[in-house]
Amino acid sequence: MQAERRCEQCGQMIPWGEQKCPACGGGDERFLWRVSRNELLLLSVLVLIILFSITTFLVKTYRAKERELAQEWYVSGKRELNAGHADVALRDFRSALVYSRNDPLIELQLAHALSAAGHYHEARAYLLGLWESEPGNGTVNLELARLAAGSGSVAEAVQYYHDAIYGQWDTDTTDHRRQARLELAEFLLKVGQKAEAQAELIAFAADLPPDPALQTQVATLLLKTGEYEHAAPLFRQALRLRPNSTPALEGAGEASFEMRNYADARRYLARARRLGAVSPQSQSLLETATLIQESDPLAPRLSGQERASRAVRAFTQSMQRLNECAAARGVSLDNNQQQSDLQKVHALASALQPQVRERNLSHDPDLLLKATDMAFEIEKVTERACGEPRGMDLALLLLSQVQEGGNE
């Protein structure tokens, strides 16, 4: 039996021998039940904390496994894409997106694979989705430019190329922008917009690093646009850094040739040939430049005899060209009516021909100049009538253009 005590619930005295308070019914059982409930709540909280920790751990483990699988599929997709297996890469990138949904890096590579596999509309849809979330992304703009270029949308391609050039890049910003500008210039050349390509390349050339390969690449594109005066210095810069670069030597030779600097053209192209094989075009330019230098009757530092000998050869060669051209065109040079340019120039040349002898020309500079001018005139007339000549005739035609330029 318990001693008399006070009820903890109502404060009344519980008589000796009673378990419960007669006033409120409370007592030890009530107290014990209240204590057990607090302990139960505490235990419940602890259980919840443990369960939450386990759930968090499992979620993190699951997400880490998803990231691992996404990375594995992504790496596999890139490997297949680089190997040229676009269809296999598509499968891999789609699998990667299953484990890493809305990942822009994977979506970009998927767009690459779609484009490589010929699924251009789907590729464009992915790229436009990426562009909407990040319109200044250089990589996305470059890919959209390539798609537009491939579909023939010139204005759209140019706009995206410019956005790529001035856009944001994660790494190597300067290199990526240069590559985008080069691609734009090549695209403009391909679609026949030479003036626009020239503008891009001239702006590009003004800020090139000392990289002979890049300088040669830009200069070669400038050659294609007809900007020989901007191309030649770039080739020379490249040659200062890499003197035995055959592409730079060939390019410098071609630029010099087009600017009618045939001595430099011959020097550059001869160096290129000594280093190894050159292109058929460079070989042809070298042969023509050599003929020009060895055939010019008006070249400086020649003896009177050599000058006269060259003038006679030039006159004789041009008369042969005139006869061949007239025969090809069915024109009778003996026709006294002299209606065509071929007949007119033949009449003038025939009147001069008896005087064109080395002895006469070596003692008469005026006659030498007259014979040379006649040879040049014949080459210009026959070029208009029968097209561009070859060999010695081409050399004489180009010399006539040099003379015209000097007389302007």
Poorly predicted sequence stretches spanning 5 or more consecutive residues:
27-35
- Large-scale geometry: rod-shaped
How does the helix and strand content classify structurally? Answer: mainly alpha
Strand order in the sheet with the most strands:
1-2
Strand/helix succession? EEHHHHHHHHHHHHHHHHHH
Mean pLDDT score: 85
Largest sheet: 2 strands, antiparallel
Count all strands and give the number: 2
Q: Measured on Cα atoms, how large is the radius of gyration?
A: 44 Å
Provide the β-strand percentage band. under 5%
Distance between the termini: 139 Å
Descriptors for this entry?
mainly alpha; single chain; 2 strands; two-stranded antiparallel ribbon; 18 helices; 408 residues
Your description of this structure?
- Strands 1-2 form a two-stranded antiparallel sheet.
- The chain has 408 residues and is mainly alpha-helical.
- The protein starts with a strand and ends with a helix.
- A hairpin with a 6-residue loop joins strand 1 and strand 2.
- It is built from 18 helices and two strands.
Topology (elements, then pairings):
Blueprint: E1 5-6, E2 13-14, H1 28-82, H2 86-99, H3 104-116, H4 120-133, H5 138-150, H6 154-165, H7 173-190, H8 194-205, H9 212-225, H10 228-241, H11 246-258, H12 262-275, H13 280-295, H14 304-329, H15 341-352, H16 358-363, H17 365-386, H18 391-407
Antiparallel strand pairs: 1-2
